[in-house]
Design brief:
Length: 307
Protein backbone atom coordinates (compact mmCIF):
# COMPACT_ATOMS: atom_id res chain seq x y z
CA UNK A 1 0.00 0.00 0.00
CA UNK A 2 2.74 2.46 1.02
CA UNK A 3 4.75 1.55 -2.08
CA UNK A 4 1.70 2.30 -4.24
CA UNK A 5 1.20 5.68 -2.53
CA UNK A 6 4.85 6.61 -3.05
CA UNK A 7 4.81 5.58 -6.71
CA UNK A 8 1.66 7.56 -7.53
CA UNK A 9 2.21 10.40 -5.05
CA UNK A 10 2.04 13.21 -7.64
CA UNK A 11 -1.36 12.13 -8.96
CA UNK A 12 -2.72 11.40 -5.48
CA UNK A 13 -1.62 14.81 -4.16
CA UNK A 14 -3.54 16.52 -6.97
CA UNK A 15 -6.55 14.34 -6.14
CA UNK A 16 -6.22 15.28 -2.45
CA UNK A 17 -6.65 18.94 -3.48
CA UNK A 18 -9.79 17.99 -5.43
CA UNK A 19 -11.23 16.08 -2.44
CA UNK A 20 -10.43 19.01 -0.15
CA UNK A 21 -12.52 21.20 -2.44
CA UNK A 22 -15.37 18.66 -2.54
CA UNK A 23 -15.35 18.11 1.25
CA UNK A 24 -14.84 21.61 2.69
CA UNK A 25 -16.05 20.74 6.22
CA UNK A 26 -13.51 17.94 6.59
CA UNK A 27 -10.86 20.15 4.99
CA UNK A 28 -11.65 22.91 7.50
CA UNK A 29 -11.38 20.43 10.37
CA UNK A 30 -7.92 19.37 9.13
CA UNK A 31 -6.54 22.93 8.84
CA UNK A 32 -5.68 23.54 12.55
CA UNK A 33 -3.49 20.41 12.63
CA UNK A 34 -1.47 21.27 9.51
CA UNK A 35 1.22 23.43 11.21
CA UNK A 36 2.08 20.52 13.55
CA UNK A 37 2.20 18.06 10.63
CA UNK A 38 4.41 20.53 8.76
CA UNK A 39 6.82 20.68 11.72
CA UNK A 40 7.11 16.88 11.79
CA UNK A 41 7.62 16.59 8.02
CA UNK A 42 10.27 19.33 7.98
CA UNK A 43 12.08 17.53 10.80
CA UNK A 44 11.92 14.11 9.08
CA UNK A 45 13.13 15.65 5.80
CA UNK A 46 16.11 17.32 7.48
CA UNK A 47 17.01 14.12 9.37
CA UNK A 48 17.35 12.26 6.06
CA UNK A 49 19.77 14.79 4.54
CA UNK A 50 23.56 14.49 4.46
CA UNK A 51 24.19 17.58 6.61
CA UNK A 52 27.88 18.18 5.81
CA UNK A 53 27.07 18.26 2.08
CA UNK A 54 24.09 20.53 2.67
CA UNK A 55 26.12 22.95 4.82
CA UNK A 56 28.80 23.03 2.14
CA UNK A 57 26.14 23.84 -0.50
CA UNK A 58 24.66 26.57 1.72
CA UNK A 59 28.05 28.26 2.06
CA UNK A 60 28.06 28.89 -1.68
CA UNK A 61 26.67 32.26 -2.73
CA UNK A 62 24.63 30.61 -5.50
CA UNK A 63 22.09 29.29 -2.96
CA UNK A 64 21.54 32.77 -1.49
CA UNK A 65 21.37 34.45 -4.89
CA UNK A 66 18.65 31.95 -5.75
CA UNK A 67 16.83 32.75 -2.46
CA UNK A 68 16.87 36.44 -3.39
CA UNK A 69 15.41 35.56 -6.79
CA UNK A 70 12.83 33.24 -5.19
CA UNK A 71 11.49 35.83 -2.77
CA UNK A 72 12.72 39.27 -3.81
CA UNK A 73 12.61 39.24 -7.60
CA UNK A 74 9.26 37.43 -7.73
CA UNK A 75 7.84 40.01 -5.30
CA UNK A 76 8.93 42.89 -7.53
CA UNK A 77 7.53 41.23 -10.68
CA UNK A 78 4.21 40.15 -9.16
CA UNK A 79 3.65 43.41 -7.25
CA UNK A 80 4.37 45.42 -10.40
CA UNK A 81 1.88 43.40 -12.47
CA UNK A 82 -0.75 43.49 -9.70
CA UNK A 83 -0.38 47.27 -9.33
CA UNK A 84 -0.65 47.70 -13.09
CA UNK A 85 -4.02 45.91 -12.99
CA UNK A 86 -5.19 47.91 -9.93
CA UNK A 87 -5.35 44.91 -7.60
CA UNK A 88 -6.93 45.57 -4.21
CA UNK A 89 -4.67 46.03 -1.18
CA UNK A 90 -5.90 42.70 0.27
CA UNK A 91 -5.05 40.80 -2.91
CA UNK A 92 -1.69 42.54 -3.25
CA UNK A 93 -0.83 41.57 0.32
CA UNK A 94 -1.81 37.93 -0.28
CA UNK A 95 0.18 37.75 -3.54
CA UNK A 96 3.35 39.24 -2.07
CA UNK A 97 3.08 36.93 0.96
CA UNK A 98 3.09 33.96 -1.43
CA UNK A 99 6.12 35.49 -3.21
CA UNK A 100 8.02 35.72 0.09
CA UNK A 101 7.32 32.04 0.88
CA UNK A 102 10.19 29.56 0.73
CA UNK A 103 10.07 26.38 -1.32
CA UNK A 104 8.28 23.19 -0.29
CA UNK A 105 10.45 20.74 1.64
CA UNK A 106 9.18 18.06 -0.75
CA UNK A 107 10.89 19.84 -3.66
CA UNK A 108 14.13 17.79 -3.57
CA UNK A 109 12.07 14.57 -3.79
CA UNK A 110 10.15 15.99 -6.76
CA UNK A 111 13.43 17.00 -8.42
CA UNK A 112 14.88 13.52 -7.81
CA UNK A 113 11.79 11.87 -9.31
CA UNK A 114 12.47 13.75 -12.54
CA UNK A 115 16.04 12.49 -12.78
CA UNK A 116 17.84 15.60 -11.49
CA UNK A 117 20.33 16.01 -8.62
CA UNK A 118 18.33 16.83 -5.44
CA UNK A 119 21.12 18.35 -3.29
CA UNK A 120 21.05 21.72 -5.08
CA UNK A 121 17.26 21.81 -4.76
CA UNK A 122 17.62 21.16 -1.03
CA UNK A 123 20.14 24.01 -0.70
CA UNK A 124 17.80 26.30 -2.64
CA UNK A 125 14.88 25.21 -0.43
CA UNK A 126 16.70 25.82 2.87
CA UNK A 127 18.13 29.17 1.69
CA UNK A 128 14.72 30.41 0.48
CA UNK A 129 13.15 29.28 3.78
CA UNK A 130 15.77 31.16 5.83
CA UNK A 131 15.37 34.25 3.62
CA UNK A 132 11.57 34.13 3.94
CA UNK A 133 11.23 35.90 7.33
CA UNK A 134 13.15 38.95 6.07
CA UNK A 135 11.30 39.27 2.75
CA UNK A 136 7.96 38.52 4.41
CA UNK A 137 8.55 41.26 6.99
CA UNK A 138 9.44 43.75 4.23
CA UNK A 139 6.38 42.76 2.18
CA UNK A 140 4.05 43.00 5.19
CA UNK A 141 5.46 46.44 6.01
CA UNK A 142 5.11 47.69 2.42
CA UNK A 143 1.74 46.21 1.48
CA UNK A 144 -0.30 46.01 4.70
CA UNK A 145 -1.32 49.68 4.79
CA UNK A 146 -0.78 52.48 7.29
CA UNK A 147 -2.42 50.73 10.24
CA UNK A 148 -0.12 47.69 10.10
CA UNK A 149 1.66 46.76 13.34
CA UNK A 150 3.36 43.34 13.44
CA UNK A 151 3.68 41.71 16.85
CA UNK A 152 7.42 41.06 16.66
CA UNK A 153 7.47 38.89 19.78
CA UNK A 154 4.85 36.53 18.33
CA UNK A 155 6.51 36.68 14.88
CA UNK A 156 9.95 35.75 16.25
CA UNK A 157 8.48 33.01 18.45
CA UNK A 158 6.71 31.44 15.47
CA UNK A 159 9.92 31.69 13.43
CA UNK A 160 11.83 29.95 16.19
CA UNK A 161 9.28 27.14 16.44
CA UNK A 162 8.43 26.47 12.78
CA UNK A 163 11.73 27.25 11.01
CA UNK A 164 14.63 27.02 13.44
CA UNK A 165 12.98 24.35 15.60
CA UNK A 166 13.11 21.52 13.01
CA UNK A 167 16.60 22.61 11.90
CA UNK A 168 17.96 22.68 15.45
CA UNK A 169 16.38 19.35 16.39
CA UNK A 170 17.68 17.64 13.25
CA UNK A 171 21.19 18.95 14.02
CA UNK A 172 21.04 17.53 17.57
CA UNK A 173 19.72 14.18 16.30
CA UNK A 174 22.54 13.95 13.74
CA UNK A 175 25.07 14.70 16.49
CA UNK A 176 23.68 12.11 18.91
CA UNK A 177 23.20 9.16 16.51
CA UNK A 178 25.45 7.24 14.19
CA UNK A 179 24.82 7.71 10.48
CA UNK A 180 23.96 4.00 10.01
CA UNK A 181 21.38 3.96 12.79
CA UNK A 182 19.87 7.25 11.63
CA UNK A 183 19.57 5.97 8.07
CA UNK A 184 17.85 2.81 9.27
CA UNK A 185 15.33 4.74 11.43
CA UNK A 186 14.68 7.35 8.75
CA UNK A 187 14.03 4.72 6.06
CA UNK A 188 11.23 3.27 8.21
CA UNK A 189 9.73 6.66 9.11
CA UNK A 190 9.84 7.86 5.49
CA UNK A 191 7.41 5.12 4.47
CA UNK A 192 4.71 6.68 6.66
CA UNK A 193 5.43 10.38 6.16
CA UNK A 194 4.00 10.15 2.64
CA UNK A 195 0.58 9.67 4.26
CA UNK A 196 0.96 13.00 6.12
CA UNK A 197 1.82 14.93 2.95
CA UNK A 198 -1.67 14.37 1.55
CA UNK A 199 -3.11 16.42 4.43
CA UNK A 200 -1.68 19.66 2.99
CA UNK A 201 -3.59 19.93 -0.30
CA UNK A 202 -6.65 18.40 1.37
CA UNK A 203 -6.61 20.79 4.34
CA UNK A 204 -5.91 23.93 2.30
CA UNK A 205 -8.15 23.41 -0.75
CA UNK A 206 -11.28 23.70 1.38
CA UNK A 207 -10.45 27.38 2.01
CA UNK A 208 -10.93 27.99 -1.69
CA UNK A 209 -14.30 26.19 -1.59
CA UNK A 210 -15.69 28.76 0.88
CA UNK A 211 -14.80 31.52 -1.58
CA UNK A 212 -16.39 29.47 -4.38
CA UNK A 213 -19.62 29.19 -2.39
CA UNK A 214 -19.81 32.90 -1.58
CA UNK A 215 -18.58 34.51 -4.82
CA UNK A 216 -18.18 32.08 -7.74
CA UNK A 217 -17.04 34.66 -10.31
CA UNK A 218 -14.27 35.94 -8.03
CA UNK A 219 -13.32 32.34 -7.12
CA UNK A 220 -12.85 31.46 -10.82
CA UNK A 221 -10.72 34.58 -11.28
CA UNK A 222 -8.71 33.60 -8.19
CA UNK A 223 -8.06 30.11 -9.58
CA UNK A 224 -6.71 31.48 -12.86
CA UNK A 225 -4.64 34.00 -10.89
CA UNK A 226 -3.18 31.16 -8.81
CA UNK A 227 -2.42 29.21 -11.99
CA UNK A 228 -0.80 32.28 -13.55
CA UNK A 229 1.54 32.99 -10.63
CA UNK A 230 2.50 29.31 -10.41
CA UNK A 231 3.47 29.38 -14.10
CA UNK A 232 5.15 32.78 -13.70
CA UNK A 233 7.32 31.53 -10.81
CA UNK A 234 8.36 28.55 -12.93
CA UNK A 235 9.22 30.76 -15.93
CA UNK A 236 11.23 33.22 -13.82
CA UNK A 237 13.30 30.40 -12.31
CA UNK A 238 13.85 28.71 -15.67
CA UNK A 239 14.77 31.87 -17.61
CA UNK A 240 17.14 33.20 -14.94
CA UNK A 241 19.04 29.88 -14.72
CA UNK A 242 18.91 28.83 -18.38
CA UNK A 243 22.50 30.00 -18.96
CA UNK A 244 23.68 27.46 -16.34
CA UNK A 245 22.32 24.54 -18.36
CA UNK A 246 19.02 22.71 -18.76
CA UNK A 247 19.24 20.68 -15.55
CA UNK A 248 19.96 23.66 -13.31
CA UNK A 249 17.24 25.67 -15.07
CA UNK A 250 14.66 22.96 -14.35
CA UNK A 251 15.82 22.64 -10.72
CA UNK A 252 15.46 26.41 -10.21
CA UNK A 253 12.10 26.47 -12.00
CA UNK A 254 10.63 23.56 -10.00
CA UNK A 255 11.92 25.04 -6.73
CA UNK A 256 10.46 28.44 -7.59
CA UNK A 257 7.08 26.96 -8.52
CA UNK A 258 6.66 24.97 -5.29
CA UNK A 259 5.80 27.24 -2.34
CA UNK A 260 5.56 26.26 1.33
CA UNK A 261 2.53 28.52 1.80
CA UNK A 262 1.46 26.76 5.00
CA UNK A 263 4.76 27.73 6.67
CA UNK A 264 4.10 31.40 5.88
CA UNK A 265 0.60 31.05 7.33
CA UNK A 266 2.00 29.34 10.45
CA UNK A 267 4.46 32.20 10.95
CA UNK A 268 2.33 35.25 10.12
CA UNK A 269 -1.29 34.05 10.42
CA UNK A 270 -3.84 36.87 10.56
CA UNK A 271 -1.33 39.48 9.36
CA UNK A 272 -1.65 38.03 5.84
CA UNK A 273 -5.14 39.42 5.26
CA UNK A 274 -8.50 37.85 4.35
CA UNK A 275 -7.53 36.67 0.85
CA UNK A 276 -4.39 34.71 1.73
CA UNK A 277 -6.13 31.44 2.69
CA UNK A 278 -8.47 31.44 -0.38
CA UNK A 279 -5.47 32.20 -2.62
CA UNK A 280 -3.33 29.37 -1.25
CA UNK A 281 -6.37 27.10 -1.44
CA UNK A 282 -6.63 27.94 -5.14
CA UNK A 283 -2.89 27.30 -5.51
CA UNK A 284 -3.08 23.69 -4.35
CA UNK A 285 -4.20 22.06 -7.61
CA UNK A 286 -1.79 24.04 -9.90
CA UNK A 287 1.08 23.38 -7.48
CA UNK A 288 0.55 19.62 -7.31
CA UNK A 289 -0.25 19.31 -11.01
CA UNK A 290 3.09 20.90 -11.85
CA UNK A 291 5.24 17.75 -11.42
CA UNK A 292 2.81 15.74 -13.57
CA UNK A 293 2.90 18.32 -16.37
CA UNK A 294 6.70 18.75 -16.23
CA UNK A 295 7.29 15.00 -16.23
CA UNK A 296 5.03 14.67 -19.30
CA UNK A 297 6.86 17.49 -21.11
CA UNK A 298 10.29 16.03 -20.29
CA UNK A 299 9.28 12.59 -21.59
CA UNK A 300 7.88 14.16 -24.75
CA UNK A 301 11.08 16.17 -25.25
CA UNK A 302 13.21 13.03 -24.82
CA UNK A 303 11.10 11.18 -27.40
CA UNK A 304 11.51 14.01 -29.89
CA UNK A 305 15.27 13.97 -29.37
CA UNK A 306 15.45 10.24 -30.14
CA UNK A 307 13.51 10.57 -33.41
Amino acid sequence: MLAFLSKHASTLLALAAVFGFLLPDLSQATLPFLPYILFVLMLFTLIGIDQPLLVKALFKKQAWLYALLHGGVTTVVVASIATLFNASSELLLALTAVCATGSLFATPAIVRSMGFEPLKAMAFTIASTLMMPVILYINLTLFSGDNFALDMKSYCLRLAVFIFGPMGLSFLIHKSMSKERLTRIHSKLAQFTVLLVFSFPFGLAGQYRWLWNSDREFAIAMFFLALAICVLFFIIGFVCYRKHGKEEAFIAAITAGNRNVLLTYSVAGAFLGPLYLPLIGALQLPTYMQPIVIRFLLKRHQKLQRT
